[in-house]
Amino acid sequence: MKHPLTIGIAGLGTVGSGLLSLLEAHGARLSQTIGRKIVIGGVCARDRERARTLGIEALPWFDDAIELARAPGIDVFVELIGGDEGVPRAAVEAALKAKKHVVTANKALLAKHGATLAALAEANGVELNFEAAVAGGIPVIKTLREALAANEIQRIYGILNGTCNYILTKMQEDGRPFLSVLGEAQAKGYAEADPAFDIGGFDAAHKLTLLASLAFGTLPALDAVYVEGIQTISAADIEAADELGYRIKLLGVASRTPSGIEARVTPVLVPRNSAIAQVAGVTNCVAIDGDFAGSLMLIGPGAGARATASAVASDILDIAHGGVLPPFLTPVAQLRPHIRADLSQHQGAYYIRLSVVDKPGALASIAKRMGDQGVSLESLVQKKPKSGTALTLGAPPAPVILITHPTNERAIRSALAAIEQDGNVSERPQMIRIEKL
Amino acid sequence: MKHPLTIGIAGLGTVGSGLLSLLEAHGARLSQTIGRKIVIGGVCARDRERARTLGIEALPWFDDAIELARAPGIDVFVELIGGDEGVPRAAVEAALKAKKHVVTANKALLAKHGATLAALAEANGVELNFEAAVAGGIPVIKTLREALAANEIQRIYGILNGTCNYILTKMQEDGRPFLSVLGEAQAKGYAEADPAFDIGGFDAAHKLTLLASLAFGTLPALDAVYVEGIQTISAADIEAADELGYRIKLLGVASRTPSGIEARVTPVLVPRNSAIAQVAGVTNCVAIDGDFAGSLMLIGPGAGARATASAVASDILDIAHGGVLPPFLTPVAQLRPHIRADLSQHQGAYYIRLSVVDKPGALASIAKRMGDQGVSLESLVQKKPKSGTALTLGAPPAPVILITHPTNERAIRSALAAIEQDGNVSERPQMIRIEKL
């Protein structure tokens, strides 16, 4: 047997506890399989009581994560604290400088400081592995860094936030409005008390940042991701999309375009009979288009103690097997700058929902505004206003659903701005991109 | 830069040509990324003319694959000949004994001789990688060997043969019979002139053998796989399944049961709105249930020159990065025997199609035979016989579709045997398992 691999675990929250359960369940078998014992050489958490409740009070305890990161005898520092500055950042830096491998589930830290940390890891000849930082139990980092390494990736996209997907799925299944489902998700623990980070698309943007870097060999560029959340999606949109044969999903999409990388997290329409439309509830998925491998899709649990622990353990085992890969596959010095594509040049079809006021010529004027911008319509459906929803004394505004032929975003935005100014709609127009899969 | 990695390629058919295209397209970039040049040190094929048509006539040519496998200066022997005996087997053995790493796409060789070859690789401290042997461009071997290595796998299943899936998809979409679609698939090059290996489920059985070994840490056991092909699936089955909310797919399924491993390749019914039901045409998919990672599904191209070449290249890159893994993850000496579960103990629901003769009491007798075996029915639909299909002078037999509640296979087989003996059906009963996803 080779000498043992000694790990230090900082952070004993959900993922940290999951990792302890996994090592408890499979540690002995794994050690035998890989011919190398995996030993916990130290743990660290905010509250020492945590070690007792987890039954690991006999393990060496560290009050300070940075001290654990540097401790002699530790081969791998496992950072499960979370957060993009302060202690976790300092501890990861300290570990790398001390030539310890690092395994982390910290998407925020990597999306912000990934290039600096990768450079540190490369300079010190150690691994910085972060499978658990994106899409929990789905091995998408390994797939990009290793399985598809010989491909030029054209596009990567996916459902990267389980909270949003749960809410959209429930809105669809039960025909309920956003806020009601959000409340239920919070009660069930699927959404945080402050849900803005998930609902607003920011969590998915962090993950997309890492995926885009790996896929395109570019520097991580969180600020270059265009973000819209799901808070503007109404039950009316879900229903109208369904009638047209679509589902609404919050997708992160990064693709190569002639003018740069288009990276965005937005609600989009996808065909109801597509595989991605079947991805329901808190499940995540990632699709990758490679020039040789073709189109791959990976579906699985995007979060949770056990699935995330499985990803962390896979990173640890890779280190145990030896062989050092640059964190972003391409050595940092070779990573190209992320050139951001102009989203106003985005090409695609659009779903538009307008609350059209009851006024002669309103529809004709709307159609003309579209035509002026060269936007042609695939379909236009005027729906009967629901009784009881009118707040005005006159006839209630009628929802009109437009599906456009492919056009560009500048044209559609100009047309909608003009329509709004004309006073033919009583609410801000709803615009959702239709994703070409 | 590290010293170059020199590969020898035996076999210049579809996959071999695909690999040359890939190295032509991405070789220079890859060498730079991994800091190591990848050099083709020799090629070998049946017909030397092939090297000329591929524009590689300047590369060292070997008439004998075994000689190439042993050639000094070759670090990795890439076996793309195919076949489970003779030259490919001897060449792979020669390479391993000469301490060369081996990359192969040869599922037949590994399903039959995997344990022996893995032991050779381990004894010589080299890699034997076979990502391309199962499901083409889908990185399922890597996912099992590395990403899910810390999991106990409960079940692995998937659509492992593109030809069968193409035929079933077309039968579904066009409502055409099996033989008509098979002919079209042959004309399009999606099915071989002799389709028995694909259609009969044997190709999928070879792949399932390798997946089961990796998933359960057991010796590869091709003979332990129960195999049924799709040749018995009629347009009537596809139509009836559709009406009941199902699709028919040829699945390979291997699962742990209390009595051993149940490994089977059979047509099954899956719910129409499941992700696996959306996997259409020649696309493959593999689903894996891990105790920590949860349920993962990977979808992608299962064959083709480029996708398979992407998998071969990923295996070569893993070798370039260093670190040696046992071919079946668990060292061969630790692989347990594959204990075959008794399929007659299979638990599940069944779809049954009977051609019931027009005779008083026939249906009642059928229902009694089911009841005698403790099989209860979820639904029974008697369909109107299609006019013009009757070959008898009397009333034509009426198709009756039964869906059972979960039962075991012994009971259902006994009931069907009794029904057949009673003379109440004019054809052998059709029985298709309903897969619980």
Give a structural overview.
The structure is a homodimer of 437-residue chains. With 437 residues, chain A is α/β, with parallel strands linked by helices. The first copy, chain A, has 3 domains: 5-133, 3-Layer(aba) Sandwich (Rossmann fold), CATH 3.40.50.720; 140-301, Dihydrodipicolinate Reductase, domain 2 (2-Layer Sandwich); 346-434, ACT domain (Alpha-Beta Plaits, 2-Layer Sandwich). The first copy, chain A, is 37% helix and 24% strand. Chain A has helices spanning 14-34, 49-53, 65-70, 86-97, 107-124, 140-147, 162-174, 178-187, 196-199, 202-216, 235-243, 305-321, 362-372, 409-421, and strands at 5-10, 38-44, 61-62, 76-79, 101-104, 128-129, 153-159, 226-227, 246-257, 260-271, 283-290, 294-301, 347-356, 377-382, 398-404, 407-408, 430-434. In chain A, strands 7, 8, 9, 10, 11, 12, 13, 14, 15, 16 and 17 form an 11-stranded mixed beta sheet that branches. A 6-stranded parallel beta sheet of chain A has the order 3-2-1-4-5-6, with helices on both faces. In chain A, a hairpin with a 2-residue loop joins strand 9 (246-257) and strand 10 (260-271). Chain A is elongated, with a radius of gyration of 24 Å. The model of chain A is unreliable at 388-392 (pLDDT under 50). At the A-B interface, helix 1, helix 6, strand 12 and helix 12 of A face helix 1, helix 6, strand 12 and helix 12 of B. Strand 12 of chain A pairs antiparallel with strand 12 of chain B.
Quick description:
Chain A has 14 helices and 17 strands. Chain A is of the alpha/beta class and 437 residues long.
